[in-house]
Amino acid sequence: MKVDYSSLCTINGEMETKVPIMDRGLAYGHGVFETIRISAGYSSLFDLHISRLINGAKILGIPIDKTSIETYFYDLIKLSPSEGIIKIIITAGSGQRGYAY
Fold first, then answer.
1. Predicted confidence (pLDDT) at residue 2 exceeds the cutoff of 70
2. 11 and 88 in contact (C-beta within 8 Å)?
3. Torsion angle of alpha carbons 47, 51, 57, 61, nearest 10°?
4. Which of 13, 101, 97, 22 lies closest to 62, judged by CA?
5. Structural domains in the chain?
């Protein structure tokens, strides 16, 4: 299967083309994101991006595993072209309606 890296999207590590309508990131902006530039297959500011992502998620009460994010990121770089942008979006996931979380 040929992968179009210009629009590769995964949810929880699985190839996906849709975001669930009840996702709190979509409905309420309950999430964090980082956009990371890749040059020559490398991100010179990766540690800064991941620290900011983890701190933001912690403030919003979204549990994330740093090791999983790092592993997924490096696996994605191995599959992707050497130049590009990777955007990591982490949301609170699907859940109840409203702002009380």
1. no
2. no
3. 140
4. 101
5. 5-85 (3.30.470.10)
Residue 25, C-beta contacts closer than 8 angstroms, at least 6 positions apart: 19, 31, 89, 90, 91, 92
pLDDT digits (tens, 9 = 90+) for 81-96: 788 888 898 988 887 7
Q: Which two tokens stand for residue 97?
A: 């309606």
Which one has a higher pLDDT value, 19 or 4?
19
> pTM for the complete prediction?
0.78
Distance between CA atoms of residues 96 and 101, nearest Å: 8
Asked if 35 and 85 count as a contact pair (C-beta separation under 8 A), the reply is yes
Residue reference for tokens 């609170």:
92
Contact 9, 16 (CB under 8 A): yes
Residue the block writes with tokens 């902006």 = 29
Closest CA to 57 of 80, 23, 34: 34
